[in-house]
Specification:
Blueprint: E1 3-9, E2 12-18, E3 22-26, E4 29-35, E5 38-43, E6 46-51, E7 55-60, E8 63-68, E9 70-77, E10 80-94, E11 97-102, H1 108-120, E12 125-132, E13 136-138, H2 159-164, E14 167-173, H3 174-184, E15 195-199, E16 210-213, H4 217-226, E17 231-236, H5 238-246, E18 252-258, E19 266-267, E20 278-286, E21 289-296
Parallel strand pairs: 12-17, 12-18, 14-15, 14-17, 15-16
Antiparallel strand pairs: 1-2, 1-11, 2-3, 3-4, 4-5, 5-6, 6-7, 7-8, 9-10, 10-11, 13-19, 18-21, 20-21
Length: about 300
């Protein structure tokens, strides 16, 4: 029975069949090889020797590269490391970079790279919110009338308008929605022109712009981020933020730190939440307010 082996070299997939004879497809061209204890492979009109043992070598472009079959290994593609675990796998180092192969129909490196490309094109989920210096988004009465700078006539920067230029979808809890329409802006819906999803277990009539839903936030957000569009803004409240943060679904954190210590109230981040490491993107301050922008730090696999 023939075995099909996939190898990635210079970001391209090379396929060859093991047996008494076979073929190797490189850059859309077929190259013959034969394999016994020793054999050869012709690439771009040149012969490269190989030898199969528990250890061996592969000569490519006049250079020798070692390979070794192991149960575990790693693959580095465009500076990103991809771990793999398989019964029979190996690695080949080419021009200082590691490329994995496995004796199966599918290549793990190709699949990982495809997942990364899909991740790159997904919509970003961003939290844009203000909190007190001690981490509260509302006081003990649920009020936000303390969301001000240190002086009434101090300079203010409209970072909100800059942020929403890249947003076309808003998600929020029922409590946040209710506070907006009854307290903060009862006369006018402030998110006009953006699709808004309100999570609630109560039944309410939806409109073209506002959709009331009892779906699980994680489920809906995973569906939305696969669709074409701009950023998705997590508007609040704290419970919704906590659910999405625990699932690792928030990509960016835009947090305005207000120069106020509340002492108690509704905390933005729960004390028992899991660790998540971030990368600082930018900071600015005006009238005592500090604007912090962080993004989720990528894991070692690049996702």
């Amino acid at each position: 029975m023939m075995r099909k082996i996939f190898m990635i070299i210079h970001d391209a997939d090379f396929v060859f069949m093991e047996g008494n004879g076979g073929s190797c497809t490189i850059h859309g061209r077929d190259f013959a090889f034969k394999e016994e204890k020793r054999g050869f492979c012709t690439i771009h009109g040149r012969d490269f020797a190989f030898k199969e043992e528990k250890r061996g070598f592969c000569t490519i472009h006049g250079r020798n590269f070692a390979f070794k079959e192991e149960k575990r290994g790693s693959c580095t593609i465009q500076g990103r490391n991809f771990a793999f675990k398989e019964e029979k796998r190996g690695s080949c180092t080419i021009h200082g970079r590691d490329f994995a192969f496995k004796e199966k129909k599918n290549c793990s490196c190709t699949n990982q790279r495809r997942k990364i490309e899909e991740w790159k094109h997904m919509r970003e989920i961003s939290l844009f919110i203000a909190m007190s210096l001690d981490g509260y988004i509302a006081d003990s009465r649920g009020s936000v009338d303390w969301l001000n700078g240190q002086t009434e006539d101090g300079e203010m920067i409209d970072t909100y308008s800059l942020f929403v230029r890249d947003v076309d979808t808003v998600v929020m809890s029922w409590n946040t929605y209710h506070q907006i329409v009854t307290e903060l802006s009862p006369e006018q819906w402030v998110y006009e022109g953006m699709k808004t999803y309100v999570f609630t277990h109560s039944k309410h009539p939806s409109s073209e712009e506002i959709c009331f839903t009892d779906r699980e936030p994680e489920e809906l957000l995973r569906e939305l981020r696969q669709q074409a569009g701009k950023k998705i803004w997590v508007c609040g409240g704290a419970n919704l933020v906590g659910q999405l943060r625990e699932k690792g679904m928030i990509d960016e954190y835009y947090i305005s730190v207000i120069p106020t210590l509340l002492g108690s109230g509704i905390r933005l981040f729960e004390e028992k939440s899991t660790e998540q490491r971030l990368e600082l993107v930018s900071t600015q301050n005006y009238n005592g307010i500090v604007e912090l922008v962080y993004k989720r730090r990528k894991d070692p696999n690049g996702v």
